[in-house]
Design a protein that fits this description.
alpha/beta, Rossmann fold, nine-stranded mixed β-sheet, globular, Gfo/Idh/MocA_oxidoreduct, Oxidoreductase
């Protein structure tokens, strides 16, 4: 079970993004505070000076530490004896790499929203800096923080369903069903702007989550893709739906559906893995339930919080079975794993083994390689493309 961190060991945290109007910003704040590992002390919360200061005041941040831009913030905080030790970046995709580099170059650890970058070239440039060290770059693929997703990973690693043969994963939502960006809705405007979102809006927004979930649970890589990217809402300048056939490194096959025009859907993230002797099924809207279906034995329904689950699942659990956990707790698991990795680096010790489940910039690089391969495949009428 999770325990609260010692308040004296809290990491000093800064934000890039996450203003008062940001829904993902509130999610980051709640997740970072849940286990007591962080204290928010600085940020660039909004481009508008008034909204920036308003957010700082609401979050208890001193006004002189509400900066106009991330470059100024990185320089000033690196020069302070009590400067931030880690920054969380939750800005549009095109900001992820320049903001990350600004802090990494000052030795400040980074926790960044997905996708890692707006292009594969950007991602490679970022990885070059990360590999020079010393600072870490971690990615909030938060769905891998769910206890039963970690249980599914353990079950497959133990051979509970045999060899993985087929995977179906989808992240099909409805938030872009209407052309709200054409009506000035900011949250959708940048997501459907290729200059800010990247070459594929739908894959950068929801597709990389499905891709990372598949990799995390199965332990396999996507080696080849055959993709069709579509724009289904009239007047939209970016794609909003993707169907991708997958070839996996272990010889299995898969299908990935990413969409934000699936009318009537809510969140829409789910995964099915079929092996040689059984299968697993998990749906994010019912995250406390994992179905393990054996071919020649009774089926099982596994629930979060039970004592017989793996250590990885138990360690990601905060409250007893029957009292539901959800997205914030899963997101907080990523923040807690990140805190352990960052503290271990700063204390020059080995981190707790389960903290290594935290997604890193290398996971992000694989996500960007997946997007680029899908874009190439779509341009070639669905031809199979190797994922570099």
């Amino acid at each position: 079970m999770k325990t609260m961190a010692n308040p004296q060991q809290r990491l000093r945290l800064g934000f890039v993004g996450g203003g008062l109007e940001s829904s993902i910003g509130s999610t980051h704040r709640y997740a970072a505070s849940l286990d007591g590992h962080y204290q928010l002390v600085a940020g660039v919360f909004a481009r508008d000076p008034e909204r920036n200061l308003a957010a700082a005041q609401a979050y208890g941040v001193a006004p002189e530490r509400a900066y106009a831009d991330f470059e100024a913030m990185a320089r000033a905080e690196a020069a302070r004896a009590d400067g931030i030790q880690v920054v969380a970046i939750m800005a549009p995709n095109a900001v992820h790499v320049p903001a990350s580099l600004a802090f990494l170059k000052h030795g400040i650890d980074v926790i960044c929203d997905k996708p890692l970058a707006a292009s594969l070239a950007q991602a490679n440039a970022l990885l070059d800096q990360v590999r020079q060290g010393p600072a870490l770059h971690l990615l909030t693929h938060n769905y891998s923080g769910y206890p039963l997703i970690r249980e599914a990973r353990e079950l497959i690693a133990r051979g509970a369903i045999g060899e993985v043969r087929l995977v179906q994963v989808e992240h099909a939502s409805a938030f872009g069903t209407h052309p709200l960006e054409q009506q000035g809705v900011k949250a959708l405007a940048w997501r459907t702007d290729p200059d800010q979102a990247g070459a594929s809006s739908v894959l950068a927004d929801v597709g990389v989550h499905a891709h990372q979930l598949l990799r995390f649970v199965t332990g396999q890589e996507v080696s080849q893709v055959s993709a069709e990217l579509s724009t289904l809402v009239p007047g939209r300048v970016s794609d909003d739906n993707a169907h991708v056939k997958l070839r996996l490194s272990g010889g299995g096959r898969g299908l990935l559906w990413a969409s934000f025009v699936a009318a009537g859907q809510r969140h829409g993230l789910q995964i099915r893995i079929f092996g040689s002797s059984g299968s697993l099924y998990w749906h994010q809207e019912q995250p406390e339930r994992l179905e393990l279906r054996h071919q020649d034995q009774p089926h099982q329904v596994l629930r979060r919080g039970e004592s017989w689950l793996s250590e990885a699942a138990r360690q990601a659990t905060r409250i007893k079975a029957g009292q539901p956990e959800g997205l914030l707790e899963a997101f907080a698991n990523i923040y807690s794993d990140a805190a352990e990795l960052i503290k271990a680096r700063r204390e020059q010790r080995a981190p707790a083994p389960l903290a290594r489940l935290c997604p890193t910039a290398e996971d992000g690089l694989r996500g960007m390689a997946f997007i680029e391969a899908c874009v190439q495949s779509d341009r070639q009428e669905g031809h199979w493309i190797e994922v570099s």
